[in-house]
Records
---
Amino acid sequence: MTGLLFPPELHILGLYSSPEYVLVISNIFAYIISPRVKVLPRLIQKIAWGPTVKDFIFIPDRKFDYLPGQYMEWTLPHDRPDNRGVRRYFTLASSPTEETLRIGIKFYARGSSFKQSLWSMGRSTPIAAAQLGGDFTLPEDNTRKLVFIAGGIGITPFRSMLKYLVDTNDQRPVTLLYAERDPADLAYDDVLSEATHRLGTRVVYTLARRPSQHADLPGAVRLQQRVTPQLISEEVPDYEDCLFYISGSHTMVESVQDGLRSMGVQEHDIKTDFFPGYA
Ligand SMILES: Cc1cc2nc3c(=O)[nH]c(=O)nc-3n(C[C@H](O)[C@H](O)[C@H](O)COP(=O)(O)OP(=O)(O)OC[C@H]3O[C@@H](n4cnc5c(N)ncnc54)[C@H](O)[C@@H]3O)c2cc1C
């Protein structure tokens, strides 16, 4: 819409198009068409999967509809916010079939004021979630073979989708390739285990080193960190028939996407979701 209104010679109701008008009109339009969901979730549990990955589980103040793989904008007011402010987008790692809302977060040693406040938040800390969005969601055609490729905390949308498939007993053919730098930070082995047993989901972990803590991972382990075309063709020999979902850092998503292109996978068979700010 911004592009359509931008030509400077455009003249509507006595007003000439200018960047300021165009941005105001486009924002009003975006506000009108975007889904109006706002919830005030109450924290009920934190789960530390590893040293830098934590889940936050909430009870929402009301039920609302969302699709597995969608995200929301989370507002956490806190003292002395740094220049990145009090809002962040986080994928809903929960499934719409669950009563609770869940987010899975990657933390850094010298992280933002937002993440520091999130890390230490208690049950009575106010937080709000709004601006539901995202089309990194399951395809309607449930016969498609799916390959999910997660880099680190990029696993969150796949936790949501797999939990949804388990709870609705939707037996789609799925292979999950889950790459993680530090095996101590692997998450969601409970849901991945349910998916392997109840749906026949294939899980392959690609790890820089063998995990010590999670001895019983619900899948095969490959000792190589990067998801390369060779690894994909070995683990998914029928890759030409599959729909690929890639989620993780920008670099990881681009590198896997380039790899798939070099294998001849069509653009419309690759869906991507990268988390800005996640290295
Ligand atoms: C649609 C969408 C979904 C997302 N889903 C998730 C999700 O499920 N889980 C998740 O963890 N993230 C997710 N993200 C990313 C998330 O929104 C944050 O952008 C990201 O986690 C970075 O957070 P942060 O800015 O608080 O920085 P931090 O994570 O605290 O730090 C990020 C990097 O910046 C450095 N840094 C920190 N503070 C500063 C500073 N003041 N100045 C300079 N450098 C600094 C850190 O050392 C680190 O290298 C998602 C993003 C989008 C857009």
---
Amino acid sequence: MSDVLKLKYKPLIGQTIPDLESFAESQGEKPFRGRQLFDWIYRQQVDDVSAMTDLSKPFREKLANVPIHPLKMITEDVSVSKQTQKILFELLDGNLLESVLMKEGNRITICLSTQVGCAVDCDFCATAKMGFIKNLTTGEIVDQFLQLQKMSEQKITNVVFMGMGEPFLNYKNSIAAADLLHHSKGINMAAWRITISTAGVVPKIRQFSEEQQPYKLAVSLNGTTQNQRLKTMPITETHSFSNLIKASKDYAYNSRNRITFEYVLMDGINDQPKDAEQLIQLLGSIECKLNMIPYNEIGDVYRRPSDEKIEAFMKSLKRAPFPVTVRWSKGTDIDAGCGQLVTSST
Ligand code: SF4
């Protein structure tokens, strides 16, 4: 099958029911053939056209010239604990991205990328060092799920949009990807199992709230004041700390959904008892959960606090009126921890 011919068509993964109906019609088929294709691709998760037995033979022959996947799996790293796998994918244009699969008992969580590189430039993050390269298409986001599901022995139970990139700077495609993961005639993942994480793009938090998106929202907080957060997250200059807290509060109030605040704990930066105190003050009246992430070191600038310091910080948060959890990253030996994803096309 000719690659040139294949490039004439958009990959099927990423297309909605109306897209696939139009595609079927463009091939001289009835629209219901598009709905059958949707079922094969997303519900049955079959990517071999010859196995799509209820499609006519001539249509299957035409489909042989149409690419299904927008991504090609290149390598897979497995952590020593075998709990974490990091997958490197190549896009059709040669760019690279990474996704992570994490096992914890029956809970299988995958961390999806939404951009190649990232423009947000958080100082502690490996992806930021790449700069912004491109937004991923809806298909490139959803294909990460489909390919990870294929390689996983267990069913994926949770999806977090927390890999490379800022999902809210690729809002349309990120939400369209979540919609495909959630579609009842396709992958059918419950909305509460899908979390979209933002570094604090305030207008998009407001849009997400106004649109009453059913997915869970996480905000990467990492500081307790404007000046402190600004030191590691330059986005705080455009979207101030107080506006971020206000938008988060309004979202939690209007949606009645508990918002998650992520807090990357960095030695000497934001791990003092006064920070814990400040977090209780700031978040005490918000329906939220606080998830502490001890920093995964990527260079010499920031350090992970000692386990004693982390425990002391957690102790200071004991009287918080919201739940507090610690995420002990399990994939740091393969650079699959939070903020460690980075690729190079060279
Ligand atoms: S932490 Fe997230 S938002 Fe910040 S630079 Fe890294 S990928 Fe972008």
